[in-house]
Design brief:
Blueprint lengths: L19 E8 L8 E8 L4 E5 L6 H8 L5 E8 L2 E2 L5 H6 L3 E4 L11 H7 L7 H14 L1 H5 L10 H12 L6 E5 L7 H18 L3 E4 L3 H6 L3 E6 L2 E7 H6 L1 H7 L4
Parallel strand pairs: 3-8, 3-9, 6-7, 7-8
Antiparallel strand pairs: 1-2, 1-4, 4-5, 9-10
Helix pairs in contact: 3-6
């Protein structure tokens, strides 16, 4: 894995019922104009799975279909065997335990780092529990602890991305959707972000489904991967296999 001492790609996928299943999903923003035209993918507990593909292929639409941000017109989305097709974003977290780290910055800029983290458990009434989770995030990201009283909007892009990931962990999610975790970040910061994802996966078994425009980087950070083109899955398999696939290498890794 780029920037990490050990790659999770050597670990076998977990057996049993997948935590997330997307079954023959068709979805889009306008009636009669589906972006996804029959997508199938799955994520097992403890896996990091990466979706790669060209711009406009439907990568972000997959996330939005899972999270209830775009209507699924046919097919099903299952979480732990339970049908959550067209669930609301609020219930995606509350009922299914799914959180999302969007590509575009989503911090509350005028609020402090600490206040942003509190927003990750805004429905939690027990202050001691909130404090416990914030301390956990600070342990994962000491930089955030150092800047706990600083307005989030004054931090660097990498620090804001750490905050977004930290906030997504506050409610102890079962699955985190990460849309372009390296977007707009310097290489050094990108390595830190992927190292943090690797640590979370190894230490607490965090399950991650990510989109990554940098195909090589995303696959090197993952156990398995999917390639989506024109709204359909065209390749799937273990990350190492996709990295060695001639067609994938030519199309997405810049290898001729």
């Amino acid at each position: 894995m780029t920037g990490c001492p050990e790659s999770p790609a050597v670990t076998a996928a977990n057996p049993g019922t997948p935590l997330l299943q997307v079954q023959d999903v068709r979805a889009g923003y306008f009636a009669g104009q589906d972006i996804l035209t029959g997508v199938d993918l799955e994520v097992h507990r403890g896996e990091i799975v990466c979706v790669i593909g060209p711009n406009g292929a439907g990568k972000s639409t997959v996330f939005k279909a899972v999270y209830g941000l775009v209507p699924v017109r046919s097919g099903r989305v299952l979480c732990d065997g339970r049908d959550i097709t067209n669930i609301s974003p609020q219930d995606a977290l509350r009922v299914a335990g799914i959180t999302i780290v969007p590509q575009l910055r989503s911090v509350f800029e005028q609020m402090t780092v600490h206040e942003n983290l509190e927003m990750g458990m805004v429905t939690e009434r027990h202050k001691a529990r909130v404090r416990e989770r914030i301390d956990y995030v600070y342990d994962l990201f000491p930089r955030l602890a150092e800047r706990s009283k600083q307005p989030a909007g004054t931090m660097s892009g990498g620090e804001q991305r750490m905050l977004e990931i930290g906030r997504s962990l506050m409610f102890e999610p079962r699955l985190v959707l990460m849309d372009e975790p390296s977007a707009g970040l310097a290489p050094k910061i990108t390595r830190q972000i992927f190292a943090a994802i690797d640590r979370l996966n190894r230490e607490i078994g965090l399950t991650v489904l990510m989109i990554e425009q940098n195909a090589r980087q995303g696959l090197e950070a993952s156990h398995r991967g999917y390639v989506i083109e024109m709204g359909r899955i065209t390749h799937e398999g273990r990350a190492a296999e996709l990295l060695g696939d001639h067609q994938v290498r030519r199309a997405f890794l810049g290898v001729r």
